[in-house]
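Curious: why this fold?
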Amino acid sequence: SDLKLLDTPGSLMVATAEDWDMISRRWRQRRAVREVALLVVDNVHLVSGMRGPIIEACCSRMRYVAAQASSSGNGGCRIISLGYSAPNSRDLADWLGVDATHTFSFHPSARPVPLESHIVPVQVTGESPVVAMAKTIFSSLQSYAGPGEPAIVFVASRKLTRATAFEIVASANSVRVPETFLHAAPRDIEPHLSRVRTKPLRECLSVGVGYLHEGINAADAAIALELFEAGALQVLVTTPNYASICPAARGRLVIVAGTSEVESNSALRQSEYSLSTVHHMMGRAGRQSKDSLATYVLITSPSQKEYYRKFLTEALPIESRLDHSLADLLNSEIVARVIESKQDAVDYITWTLFYRRLPQNPNYYNMSGGSHQHVSDHLSELIETAIADLEACKCVATEGDDDMALGPLNLGMIACYYYIRYTTVELFASSIQARTKVRGLLEVLAAASEYENVAIRSGDDETLKLLARHLPISLSKPGDEGGPRYADPHIKAHLLLQSHFSRNALAGDIEEDRRDVVERAPKLLQAMVDVISSSGWLKPALAAMELSQMVTQALWDRDSSLMQLPHLSPDKASALEKQGIEGIFDLIDMESEARSKALGLSRGEMADVARVCNSYPNIEMEFELQLEEESVVAGDAVTVMVRLTRDSEDDKASPARVPTASAPYFPVRKEEHWWLVIGDPKENVLVSVKRVALKNTATVKLDFSAPEDFVGRKEYKLYFMCDAYLGCDQEEELSIMVTATEEDMQPPPAPPE
């Protein structure tokens, strides 16, 4: 997030719960957070879902901030929340500080368009689940969707969208009405179909059935949606996730084809839709001003029929999941100095929905009773356990004679600053050693807690097993007879990172998983560098920085840096290296004619190469030791001033923004950042490190202490490491003369006579 936007007067900010949680943690240092006048929370019912602890932390914190502001005479913060029907809406209102007169709770049946619901039990035995489900879907389409009335079919995964669409088309062919879902003349939609690049989608669209998911080409998806909204297509097959990012798709009929998905062939775990997800899909039924009645068909297993019959018309209470992430919440507030004692922690919890739901539903929270004493004892036990875990992980420290005072430690501050789990920071600190290399760091990175929720779908273990055969690092360990457990999300993350460095082509869900794994990696690696620097180890810190370059450019550290340029294959890069062209700077320094001849690319491809070469960072680094004398006394502070100047070919480059790295294989926009490091490579000692966001020029101050157990000339190296590009790092020799302290120079006392 661009924090400067917060200082814009009267600004409107739209943020995810994670973004606002990260920003608002430092509310005491950020006046803009303290001065928020209105907080609008959409989908507040998701507080009972996987992201619930983050939503609850944000809302509870803003209420706490508003109370602090009101007590000091400043204006408070109004909170408006919107969500699905909930029988315990009064608890939600009390948590958000809303009185009864301003709380509006509606029955689930209250809708702009009346909804007719049907629950169809289907037992899949013998035949393919897709075929069995498609028969019921086609029957529902015939029964509940009139001619030209749009219908949306939700399936559990992207893989099923295409298969289900083709089965619907096959069912239509079997009753000899192949174009029953097409409501436009073929010649009218042909100009649109000719622009669809995905052949299977084009075939389905031609008979009035479309399918969409997150992996579909954006232009193809836009054409399919345009045809559906225009009424040319009657049936659209999609996933719940895609529907959440495409609010325009609505239908007279909505069919949910199955409510669970097998997540792993080996574990055979089934993931059931949450009720909020089911309600969200229900909400797509009915078009205002067009439909007088909407129809919703839920196809599920017979064992789930009564469950959905009850809770689709009578909503479940919204419960808190804060106890699942209590330690991370406490750590962030201890770092922010909002919580400075165990009593502060108890007081802070009283601002949460969790505190209000404890006496209302004690069994849900593993309490033996709902009395005030039961609640007090349960809270005390939870907080003691969470603090003990944080203390064991060296994130916080208890202070005082009675261990009631709390203070943050370095690892806790790193976890809070980078917005990662405290267990991840503890893993980094305990697993990385002074001699750990890139391969070991990659294994530790993949084991981070942030990757424990990487999706494991049906068939993934076989796909990963096949992928592992083509990757350079084997995950099989000596004595491991069964081999790697491919259903483990951390194993999957490790293999996906390797495939990213190898630039292996993937498709479908597994490619989306890889994008997610890769996108999370830079933040984890920045935290890893800080953890290693805290231990004072130089070589693993430099290795972690190189790993960050690998993640951004999708290259192994042994690959040629020339492969960062477009249209350069490994063979072409190898051929250039044989000609003495070993890096991008060598290519830039060549004459234009010689460069064109060496690359052998077309004019358009040469333009792409020139664009990346012009953005490749060329930084001039100068440094100066700031010493009052030519030598420094052992143990005294040493200051190094580093002057950085960017040599930019682009005269239009804005000095107000950090440049964006050219990283076509990285899934999102990535800014170019740097590390300045001072260390002794012979002793593997890191003495100073600082992260730099370089625009055009910068002056950076590095401080460290002269060694206390050394006298003479001490040799160091100054490293300038990029986090986004390979081949542009710099290192310079740096030395200081260390003299003994006056105490050490005193002659030893004479022995007694």
The chain has 28 helices and 20 strands. Residues 262-269 have pLDDT under 50 and may be disordered. The two ends are 74 Å apart (CA to CA). The first strand starts at residue 38 and ends at 41.
